[in-house]
Design goal:
single chain; alpha/beta; elongated
């Protein structure tokens, strides 16, 4: 495979995946459908693999196609970055992006580093708010792009780019999760993680009381790390000093949360496209954060036991 891959073929391949059909992709890349089909046959011959499974008018990307997709996106992005580096006038302006602060701490450094290195003249205006607020901002044109949890309320198409396990979490240095009435630190009333956590505890008959409510990730994390409450957080929001509560602790598994990119209807142009590509690549390449491992046994000291008694008394009063 010494002959380089054809970027135009890769661009068509990505267009087919994004559009979901050869016909729509042909319009997007300004080619005839027969030309698109020919390009894919040549690309498949070049790689020696089948990229799509065809069933009548429907197509489905194969495992090998999914493997190629990540490389193709990166190659096309790098190609655009290279061109932009020698044509600084082509990539200027500003982009308004929003994401919850749960995601900002984990995802934003990688996104900013990738995007700013290749687009140093573009100004990023960044908002950190809950997903529902961000969806409203995108709908009303106050944001160009948002990275949000899939709450089922998005009016614009939501492109799912990452799936995160959702966990009950506690402090690794405390055992407040043993309290008879669980103290909770959760997001606001419309937070879907809050709703899932409370519904799950109701289902298993576990008593609880919400002691802290905030959409600030810092406030929720502080309540957990100080041993005052447990919370429900995605894996990306875990911090050193937190511990996942699982079957060993008699806490059930929660449903994964999905993270998607929301793009305003009027948000177009190479700057917006480049940012979306960088977000995709950043989230695809991030490794899970390091969490406190689940212990085989948690020793119960007199200090911890007395702290638990005081906690139960305070909650019951």
């Amino acid at each position: 495979m010494s002959v380089p891959l054809d970027l135009d073929q890769l661009r068509t391949f990505v267009a087919i995946v994004d559009a979901g059909s050869f016909t729509k992709a042909a319009d997007d890349v300004f080619k005839t459908q027969s030309a698109v089909s020919m390009q894919m046959r040549r690309l498949e011959d070049r790689l020696g693999v089948q990229l799509f499974e065809r069933n009548g008018r429907t197509i489905r990307i194969t495992d090998e196609g999914a493997r190629l997709l990540a490389y193709a996106r990166r190659m096309l992005t790098l190609s655009q970055e290279t061109l932009s580096a020698f044509d600084q006038e082509a990539m200027q302006g500003h982009v308004r992006i929003g994401l919850p602060d749960d995601y900002a701490e984990r995802f934003l450094p990688e996104i900013l580093a990738r995007f700013s290195r290749s687009n140093p003249l573009v100004e990023l205006q960044i908002a950190c708010e809950p997903s529902l607020n961000l969806m409203d901002h995108v709908e009303k044109g106050r944001l160009d792009v948002a990275l949000v949890s899939d709450c089922g309320h998005a009016t614009a198409p939501l492109e799912i780019v990452r799936r995160e396990p959702l966990h009950f979490v506690t402090s690794a240095a405390h055992d407040i999760h043993h309290a008879e009435i669980l103290p909770l630190a959760l997001g606001r009333q419309d937070c879907m993680w809050r709703a899932q956590g409370m519904q799950t505890l109701d289902r298993i008959g576990r008593k609880y009381k919400v002691l802290f409510t905030s959409w600030s990730a810092q406030i929720v994390a502080s309540a957990v790390l100080s041993g005052l409450a447990i919370s429900v957080l995605p894996e990306c929001a875990l911090r050193p000093g937190m511990r996942i509560l699982g079957e060993y602790d008699k806490f059930p598994t929660l449903i994964d949360t999905e993270i998607g990119i929301l793009r305003a209807r009027a948000a177009e142009g190479p700057v917006i496209t480049a940012l979306v590509e960088h977000i995709r690549d950043s989230l695809a390449n991030l490794a899970p954060p390091q969490a406190q491992p689940k212990p085989s046994q948690i020793p119960e000291t007199r200090v911890v036991r007395s702290a638990r008694i005081r906690s139960n008394s305070a909650l019951a009063s």
